[in-house]
């Protein structure tokens, strides 16, 4: 029984380490892309930048939801603030512009990931 518990604990620690690393990497990539002097992506589709914001912040919130299960809403609030901060900083950078629409796209990504998290949580609760 002790060996089984130790394995579960090790698996739990492994998952937390993996999720933490993934969250940190996505956070860092978003920061680098957002605060580079010139945009690092080539716009080939209409509204591509909005879709990029939605995807980036949805992934970040999904990882945060898995990592901080007991504090999902406060972390989501922090990510909304982070998305807004990026836009404020961009508005002061030469060659970049801040945009309410970009911030809104980030918020949409966060909300989509929250809705998926809530749906999965409710589904799992119904199975027990």
Strand content: under 5%
Number of domains: 1
Task: Please give the radius of gyration in angstroms.
Answer: 17 Å
Low-confidence stretches: none
Could you state the order of secondary-structure elements as H and E? HHHH
Secondary structure: helix percent: over 70%
Straight-line N-to-C gap: 24 Å
Question: Biggest sheet: strands, sense, closure?
Answer: none
Could you say which structural class the secondary elements and strand pairing correspond to?
mainly alpha
Q: What is the number of strand segments?
A: 0
If helices are DSSP runs of H or I spanning 4 or more residues, what is the number of helices?
Answer: 4
Mean pLDDT: 89
What would the principal axes of the Cα set say about the shape?
Answer: elongated
Would you give an account of this structure?
This protein has 128 residues and is mostly helical. The protein has one domain. 80% of the residues lie in helices and 0% in strands.
What secondary-structure arrangement, pairings included, does this model have?
Elements: H1 2-35, H2 48-67, H3 72-92, H4 100-127
Helix pairs in contact: 1-2, 2-3, 2-4, 3-4
List keywords for this structure.
128 residues; mainly alpha; 4 helices; 0% strand; elongated
Short characterization:
The protein has 128 residues and is mainly α. It is built from 4 helices and no strands.
């Amino acid at each position: 029984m002790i060996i089984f518990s130790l394995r579960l604990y090790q698996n739990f620690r492994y998952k937390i380490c993996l999720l933490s690393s993934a969250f940190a990497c996505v956070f860092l990539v978003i920061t680098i892309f957002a605060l580079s002097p010139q945009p690092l992506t080539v716009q080939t589709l209409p509204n591509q930048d909005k879709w990029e914001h939605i995807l980036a912040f949805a992934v970040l919130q999904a990882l945060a939801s898995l990592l901080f299960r007991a504090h999902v809403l406060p972390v989501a609030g922090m990510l909304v603030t982070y998305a807004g901060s990026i836009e404020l900083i961009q508005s002061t950078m030469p060659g970049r512009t801040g945009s309410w629409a970009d911030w809104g796209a980030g918020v949409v990504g966060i909300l989509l990931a929250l809705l998926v998290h809530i749906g999965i949580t409710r589904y799992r609760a119904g199975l027990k």
